[in-house]
Amino acid sequence: MIPEESVMYMRAAVLTAFGTPLTVVDMPVPAPGPGEVLVQVMASAVNPLDTKVRRGQAAHAQTTPPAVPGIDTAGVVVSVGEDVDRFHPGDEVFGMTGGVGGIQGSLAEYIAVDSRLLAPKPRTLSMRQAAALPLAFITAWEALVDHAAVRQGQQVLVHGGAGGVGNIAVQLATSRGATVYATGSAASQAAIAAAGATAIDYTATPVADYVDTHTGGRGFDVVFDTVGGATLDDSFHAVKAVTGRVVSALGWGSHSLAPLSFRNATYSGVFTLSPLLTGQRREHHGEVLRAAKLLAESGLLTPRLDERAYTLADVDDAYDAVENRTATGKVVIDVGCAAH
Fold first, then answer.
1. Closest by alpha carbon to 306, among 330, 324, 273?
2. Domain shared by 144 and 104, yes or no
3. 198: helix, coil or strand?
């Protein structure tokens, strides 16, 4: 039996029941198992999915209270478990590491992580910036690279270009030589343009009009939907015939495929949580984030952050900023010393 005084404790935010505020408690520091590393968490991003988990409106995330939420992590390796030779104590890392499927999330001072999910943190980014990338970049990569194989010379349309995934998708498609367009509200046009896309105000411009204006009526080579619902239906009307591809990160619900079928175009969906929930292809997440590291260090990838500072003490304020859409960029919580 381990003496109580030898157990190390950490602060963590815990979801005790759906629809309630998170509670900050003391809990034991986890030990890394085989293939895992123990990471001191410096920063944790808040995604819209995190807020849905808190409300109990994300059954696909397979979260059961009590649970430590937080999907995205940036921090420093403290120790490594058996069979880990890729990382060493002191390494700065980032990844999409937990917060779903019963896996401890990143709203804690320490987290034991499957090393396959991690990549070295980009040298050019702060801990806060690195924490903002994993889910958004992996989602964008799986859509635009794994599914759509975006390449130079193509015209790419991103729906929701000012959102967390959309902003990264614009930068990724641009880095691959595509000409990028992105839809958003009137208030988001400047942010979309700053990311490198031609901004389209979907509230003022019908689909047929912007397809005619920007593609001569032919349609876009690739349409990436980050919004879902009626926006996915619009995507089927905006894609190019025969060779066009529509990819959605929110392809849920019922949709008529007739417009897509008449174009002989194709559709595919992205479910970024799958490796976390199933344990399969986790190494792909690490590989994708290594690509993000190269792009960031080349100056081709920079996350857009909300400037407000949050800690574990005001974690619910951070969640509310995302849920109420008052944030002006990705919300990041400083869990440890983010300036490490």
1. 330
2. no
3. strand
Buried b (16+ CB within 10 A) or exposed e, 59-86: eebebeeebbbbbbbbbbbbbbbeebee
CATH number of the domain to which 318 belongs: 3.90.180.10
Is 206 in the same domain as 328? no
Closest CA to 165 of 201, 146, 186, 141: 141
How many domains, in total, are found in the chain? Answer: 2
**For residue 182, which of 208, 209, 155 has the smallest C-alpha distance?**
155
Residues 258, 202: Cα–Cα separation, whole Å: 22
Print pLDDT tens along the chain (340 aa): 344 457 899 999 999 999 999 999 999 999 999 999 999 999 999 999 999 999 999 999 999 999 999 999 999 999 999 999 999 999 999 999 999 999 999 999 999 999 999 999 999 999 999 999 999 999 999 999 999 999 999 999 999 999 999 999 999 999 999 999 999 999 999 999 999 999 999 999 999 999 999 999 999 999 999 999 999 999 999 999 999 999 999 998 899 999 999 999 999 999 999 999 999 999 999 999 999 999 999 999 999 999 999 999 999 999 999 999 999 999 999 998 433 3
pTM across the whole model: 0.95
The amino acid sitting at 92 is E
The DSSP code for 252 is -
DSSP letter at 216 equals: T
Asked if residue 297 belongs to a domain, the reply is no
Q: Is 139 helix (H, G, I), strand (E, B) or coil?
A: helix
Q: Which domain holds residue 63?
A: 4-132+304-334
Task: Tell me the CA end-to-end span of the chain in Å, nearest whole number.
Answer: 36
- Do the beta carbons of residue 90 and residue 77 sit within 8 Å? yes
Q: Are residues 48 and 161 in the same domain?
A: no
Check residue 31 and report its DSSP letter. Answer: P
β-pairing verdict for 222-225 and 245-248: parallel
